[in-house]
């Protein structure tokens, strides 16, 4: 038994090094475009699993009271920023606004078709009206002839809206509803037919700011994972299994690259506008990704500012992913953040109360 423990201890040394190196690659995923390294992009996607492995290794070496514990500890500390982007604990009571404030919501509504295939316009608009949302950004919006945007304005109690539709899809796209006047709006062409982004310049009192709503390239993993069901793989030979995995990985890598290019387009709009900016939407990428960091730049992540608990927003894949965000620049200041688990979409809505701080 002692020999077995000794052998296992020796085996854990290279495992420790590999896990630490993997965490370093995952850290780099935020800064290296996927075009330069698909491997690093995959490491970023696997960040939660990599950090979990490092935690287990740290516990093992701590119990053994061996110096190797410093490697997993360092690996975890390297990625503390990622951990803070998915776990937050704020115990203080939400502050009351001292200046003008408003509530903004972003929600990928899945075409107003719930998982049970029922229309969800009424429960979604009722909920957001009850929450007194002043600005609402919908992604995967469907402008139904039976419930057009004008009718949703009334249900939301928001008199202004601008919608932008996908090429070839006159009823599908994104929309921004507002309690306040929308001065200008525009579309951000993303180069694909199923994803889109738009902006609207909104005026509150004497302050004009730009809201960007985006729905970036999907991962396609929900569709591809059907090919990875064990019962399906069992009936295939090794060549078919290898081909299936290669196809799934190739699709994921291609979409990493597309989202990175779209992030560059969004970043260009942020950098060239003269107004304060709020970016909302479904990035289809996690806080460990190049896409998230490219768009975020020096903006504030609302969840990190005033979120609580584990911050997932995608209701599939066992509630593991935070891919919907509200980011903002000065003079906005986050007061409250919430993302309730509602049954009307495969995403959760994200709502924030923002205060407009004086600029002088």
Automatic annotation (TrEMBL):
One of its GO terms (molecular function) is catalytic activity. The keyword DNA-binding does not apply. The keyword Transmembrane applies. Pfam families: Exo_endo_phos. InterPro entries: Endo/exonu/phosph_ase_sf, Endo/exonuclease/phosphatase, GPI-anchor_lipid_remodeler. One of its GO terms (biological process) is GPI anchor biosynthetic process. Gene3D superfamilies: Endonuclease/exonuclease/phosphatase. GO terms for cellular component: membrane. Keywords: Membrane, Transmembrane, Transmembrane helix. The chain crosses the membrane at residues 7-32, 38-63, 70-91. Residues 105-347 form the Endonuclease/exonuclease/phosphatase domain. This is Endonuclease/exonuclease/phosphatase domain-containing protein. The lineage of its organism: Bacteria, Pseudomonadati, Bacteroidota, Bacteroidia, Bacteroidales.
């Amino acid at each position: 038994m002692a020999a077995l423990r000794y052998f296992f201890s020796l085996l854990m040394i290279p495992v420790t090094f590999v896990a630490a190196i993997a965490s370093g690659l995952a850290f780099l995923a935020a800064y290296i475009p996927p075009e330069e390294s698909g491997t690093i992009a995959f490491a970023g996607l696997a960040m939660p699993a990599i950090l979990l492995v490092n935690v287990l290794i740290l516990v093992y070496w701590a119990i053994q009271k061996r110096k190797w514990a410093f490697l997993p500890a360092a690996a975890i500390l390297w990625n503390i920023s990622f951990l803070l982007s998915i776990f937050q604990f704020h115990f203080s009571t939400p502050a009351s606004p001292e200046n003008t404030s408003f509530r903004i919501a972003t929600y990928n509504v899945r075409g107003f078709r719930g998982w049970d295939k029922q229309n969800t316009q009424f429960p979604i608009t009722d909920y957001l009206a009850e929450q007194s949302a002043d600005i609402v950004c919908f992604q995967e919006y469907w402008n139904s002839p039976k419930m057009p945007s004008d009718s949703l304005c009334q249900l939301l109690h928001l008199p202004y809206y601008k919608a932008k539709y996908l090429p070839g899809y006159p009823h599908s796209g994104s929309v921004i509803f507002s309690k306040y006047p929308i001065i200008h709006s525009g579309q951000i062409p993303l180069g694909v037919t199923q994803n889109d982004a738009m902006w609207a310049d909104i005026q509150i009192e004497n302050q004009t700011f730009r809201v960007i709503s985006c729905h970036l390239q999907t991962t396609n993993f929900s569709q591809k994972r059907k090919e990875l069901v064990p019962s399906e793989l069992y009936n295939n030979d090794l060549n078919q299994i290898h081909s299936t995995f290669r196809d799934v990985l190739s699709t994921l890598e291609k979409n990493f690259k597309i989202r990175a290019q779209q992030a560059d387009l969004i970043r260009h709009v942020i950098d060239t506008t003269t107004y304060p900016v709020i970016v909302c939407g479904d990035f289809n990428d996690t806080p460990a990704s190049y896409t998230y960091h490219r768009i975020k730049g020096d903006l504030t992540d609302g969840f990190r500012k005033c979120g609580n608990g584990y911050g997932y927003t995608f209701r599939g894949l066992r509630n593991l992913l935070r891919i919907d965000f509200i980011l903002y620049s000065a003079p906005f200041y986050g007061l409250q953040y919430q993302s309730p688990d509602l049954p009307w979409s495969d995403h959760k809505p994200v709502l924030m109360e923002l205060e407009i701080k004086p600029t002088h």
